[in-house]
Design a protein that fits this description.
This protein is of the alpha/beta class. The protein has one domain (25-65, 101-249): 3-Layer(bba) Sandwich (FAD/NAD(P)-binding domain), CATH 3.50.50.60. It contains 9 helices and 11 strands. It has helices spanning 4-20, 34-45, 79-85, 100-114, 142-146, 170-179, 196-205, 219-225, 235-251, and strands spanning 24-30, 50-54, 72-75, 90-92, 95-99, 117-120, 122-130, 133-141, 154-163, 208-211, 214-216. Strands 1, 2, 6, 7, 8, 9, 10 and 11 form an 8-stranded mixed β-sheet that branches. The chain has a 3-stranded antiparallel β-sheet with strand order 3-5-4. Helix 2 packs parallel to helix 4 and helix 7 runs parallel beside helix 9. The longest helix has 17 residues, at 4-20. The protein binds ligand 48F. Ligand 48F binds next to helix 2, strand 2, strand 7 and helix 8.
């Protein structure tokens, strides 16, 4: 017999256990797009305690829709990552072509299998900064935020925080507003117009620490540093996610 309250108990108990195991972590990743998921995979594979906080219910960010809603992505320069993730692809004129739904599903599955946690429906609305260093994130349920209820958030302690929030660079924006960034200008430069070749290269180049304890990856890196967008080509996102993980692993 199925008892209704058994279901209630199992869900609440299980979530509470998982959540409490993750209030003090090595790396908090904000955003479960391709760059955040790739970073999570590499950090978790190296045995680090890593959690992705994703505002929406579905992880995958801007990858699901491929280009203009056709579930196809183009990749250049990240063939090894596609292979490692088990994402099937075809090659045409030097470009790799993959199905966006398969790509998201496998990035998510690989990150989870490597040991990363994904908490969905949670928005990072602030960071903790102590002694001039980012040392955690402040979270609230997205549903609470969207309903504009006055409910105070809670904090998660993390040795490093990664802003993987894409075009909006939401975490960088919070820190910029309150303290200024430790970048050459101290300010968010805003992403520039479409230029796939330059954008892909710059995404990887711009990946790095923008405030003590806070790193930026993926499209957020270009938005912070003032580099072009690149549309539905994703090699830069995957390579940037891997790079940010390697940079943090050197310090952990
Ligand atoms: O936008 P998104 O996919 O970021 P990305 O990894 O990849 C960019 C590409 O998808 C595409 C592109 C490729 O060429 O330009 O745009 O850089 O994923 C960002 C994720 O962050 C979540 C958001 O819902 C999305 O899934 N997010 C944004 N702000 C917050 C957040 C927040 N404050 N808290 C939690 N999640």
């Amino acid at each position: 017999m199925i008892r209704d309250i058994d279901i209630t108990r199992l869900i609440v108990e299980n979530f509470m256990q998982e959540f409490l195991q993750n209030v003090k972590i090595d790396v908090a990743i904000v955003g479960a797009g391709p760059s955040g998921l790739t970073a999570a995979y590499h950090l978790a594979k190296s045995g680090k305690k890593v959690v992705i906080f994703e505002r929406k219910l579905s992880p995958g960010g801007g990858m699901w829709g491929g280009g203009i809603g056709y579930p196809v992505i183009v990749v250049k320069g990240a063939e090894n990552i596609l292979k490692e993730m088990g994402i099937k692809y075809a090659e045409k004129n030097g470009y790799l072509i993959a199905n966006s739904i398969e790509a998201v599903a496998k990035l998510v599955a690989n990150a989870i299998d490597a040991g990363a946690k994904i908490f969905n429906g949670m928005t990072v609305e602030d960071v903790m900064i102590k002694n001039g260093r980012v040392c955690g994130v402040v979270i609230n349920w997205t549903s609470i935020m969207e309903a504009k209820l006055h409910v105070d958030p809670v904090s998660i302690e993390a040795k490093f925080v990664i802003d993987a929030t894409g075009h909006d660079c939401n975490v960088a924006r919070i820190v910029e507003k309150k303290y200024g960034l430790k970048t050459p200008t101290g300010k968010i430069q805003g992403e520039k117009a479409m230029w796939a070749d330059e954008g892909e290269r710059k995404t990887v180049e711009n990946t790095g620490e923008i405030f003590p304890g806070l790193y930026v990856t993926g499209m957020a890196a270009n938005a912070v540093m003032g580099a072009p967008r690149m549309g539905p080509i994703f090699g830069g996102m995957l390579l940037s996610g891997k790079k940010v993980a390697e940079m943090i692993l050197e310090k952990l």
